[in-house]
Design brief:
It is built from two helices and no strands. It has about 70 residues and is mostly helical. Helix 1 runs antiparallel to helix 2.
């Protein structure tokens, strides 16, 4: 059960990273299309990275809590 929890957590982290990749691609394209400035693109990428870290951390914490719960039973 613990190993499955770890697998699921890693799958979710990969999904979060994929969203980050897509977001970064969209910001690059918007900057190329002159829809935003280079500074706006950079600040948006920074925000995307911060959100990525936040949600990866939440996945990690939830997985640890579930592992502890399973091990205590």
């Amino acid at each position: 059960m613990v190993s499955r929890t770890k697998e699921l957590a890693e799958e979710q982290k990969v999904a979060i990273r994929n969203v980050r990749r897509d977001g970064n691609k969209h910001t690059d394209q918007a900057e190329k299309d002159k829809e935003m400035t280079e500074d706006d693109r950079d600040s948006l990428k920074k925000e995307i990275q911060e959100l990525t870290k936040k949600y990866e951390g939440q996945v990690t914490e939830l997985a640890k809590a579930k592992e502890k719960e399973v091990m205590d039973d």
